Amino acid sequence: MYFQYAKESKPSWWRYAITLTATVFAYLVLGSLPVSLAIWYQNRQGFPVDVVSFAQTYNPEFIGIGKNPGLAMLLFPAVAGFFTLWFFIRWLHGRNTGQMASAYGKLRWKRLLYAAGFWLLLLVFAEILTALLMPQNYSYHFNARLFFPLLGIALVMIPLQTWFEELLFRSYLMQGMGLLFNSRLAALLITSIAFGLLHITNPEVRLFGLASTMPYYIGFGIFAGLLVVMDNGIEMACGIHAVSNIYSAVFVSYESSVLQTPSIWHIEQLHPWLMNLFFLLAATVFILVSHKKFQWRNWKKLWQPISS
């Protein structure tokens, strides 16, 4: 039903071409303006700026900017991309926000809040286990002066950033790929790989390598895609994605994270194998519980043709 619904939204190739071109322009060009202007201003004021180190680590202190303003600048491209993508889907494809979110023509807030709350519990549980196994790996860094502005930025901008990625990959592109190949499975795999490639420039990927980090990003894409296909909407994926990024930015961060923030706790050394293991276990638990709660019975549709 989720893919069939997309047929009613003027799925012409030229509409996709215009929408994607405008979105990429907004993300890469308009989105980079705050950082570019900040670097220009710092240079003009004579402050030392290390653009290469900033590009490798995303640490805004290399360009003379605090971590909270740096986080806002880092998230701005996705915010610009979100409003651009939303506008063109609304104007060019004639779909409202509810139609973008699910096959039911409305945004199901209960689904989103259920997923966010349940996933947060799983994250906290996994964090407690990790802290018990390696207590020496955690350090406490709470600073109220930095924390509350960070919290405000995270609660406002991260939902827009994650909504952009879900709207792009799990709604717009997944439905488009589904109609193109007449296959939910093909759409899920293609968009999951594309989602992983979006994160290939992240600092942790450069530090730990593709083999250690891509299983997480592509795995998250597959996990979120499964939720979308089975639940006929992106609300659960949005809730999980948003709470994951807010948690990483506000509560527990690490040195090589793409989100360089003054979080409450700091991990001295990230263990990608442990991160992948806990993610796999959490995703499995979430799917099993949701399968029972929402009675997802027709798993065969994953490999059945969409038109059948």
Which labels suit this protein?
single chain; 308 residues; mainly alpha; three-stranded mixed sheet; 13 helices; 71% helix; globular
Descriptive overview:
By secondary structure, this protein is an all-alpha fold. It has a domain at 104-302. 71% of the residues lie in helices and 3% in strands. It has helices spanning 2-6, 13-30, 33-44, 51-57, 67-92, 97-101, 109-133, 144-181, 184-198, 203-208, 210-231, 235-250, 272-294, and strands at residues 138-140, 252-254, 265-267. It has a three-stranded mixed beta sheet with strand order 1-3-2. The longest helix has 38 residues, at 144-181. It is globular. The mean pLDDT is 92.
Ordered list of secondary-structure elements with their pairings:
Elements: H1 2-6, H2 13-30, H3 33-44, H4 51-57, H5 67-92, H6 97-101, H7 109-133, E1 138-140, H8 144-181, H9 184-198, H10 203-208, H11 210-231, H12 235-250, E2 252-254, E3 265-267, H13 272-294
Quick overview:
The chain is mainly alpha-helical and 308 residues long.
